[in-house]
Amino acid sequence: MRTRRGARALVARATLADANLASFSRRLEIAELEIEDARARAVELETSTTWRMTEPLRAAMHRGKVVAARIRAGARACAVAAAGLARDDLAARRGPARVASRVARKLAAADGSVRQSR
Fold first, then answer.
1. How far is CA 90 from CA 17, 79, 102, in A?
2. Of 87, 80, 68, residue with least CA distance to 106
3. CA–CA distance, 84 with 82 (Å, rounded to integer)
4. Separation between Cα atoms, residue 76 and residue 70, nearest integer Å
5. What residues contact residue 107 under an 8 Å CB cut-off, 6+ apart?
6. Within 10 A of 54 (CB to CB), how many other CB atoms are there?
7. For the segment 48-59, what is each residue's pLDDT rounded down to a tens digit?
8. Can you say how many angstroms the Cα of residue 113 is from the centroid of all Cα atoms in its chain?
């Protein structure tokens, strides 16, 4: 009796495993078809006249975003440098006017290096 029950249980588990495998296989096929459709759509869009005509605008927008990010990074760096200078003993020894002139010199030097690199 036990061996028959064990065999039936194994058959039931194998049948369930086959059904699960078939289900996963079908899902994989569907996902592959969706990927293929998405790739075809991307190629269709990228080869369209509108996409090609708007390329200069998209490139300019990208450059603008990069410049804006660099400006934000520079502003953060200046804020960190100014905070460091304010904590520095220079402020305690020589006063805020000396700190301000030092910050101005550093900013002018940074501005000069940007101009020279262009």
1. 75, 17, 10
2. 80
3. 5
4. 10
5. 78
6. 12
7. 999 899 999 999
8. 29
Can you tell me the distance from the alpha carbon of 37 to that of 31, in angstroms, rounded to the nearest whole number?
10
Residue 105, amino acid:
R
Buried-state track 81-110, b at ≥16 Cβ within 10 A, e below 16:
ebeebeeeeebeeeeeeebeebeeeeeeee
Residue 114: pLDDT band by 50, 70, 90 thresholds?
very low
Beta strands in 6-102 (DSSP E): none
Model confidence at 13: pLDDT above 80: yes
Q: Which residues contact 51 (CB under 8 A, 6 or more apart)?
A: 45
Quickly tell me which residue has 């899902």 as its tokens: 27
C-alpha of 72 from chain center: 17
Give the CA count within 13 Å in the CB-facing half-sphere of 2: 0
Which of 91, 72, 73 minimizes the C-alpha distance to 82? 91
Phi, psi of 47 (to 5 degrees): -100, 0
Residue with tokens 């006249």: 49
Q: Tokens representing 7?
A: 């065999």
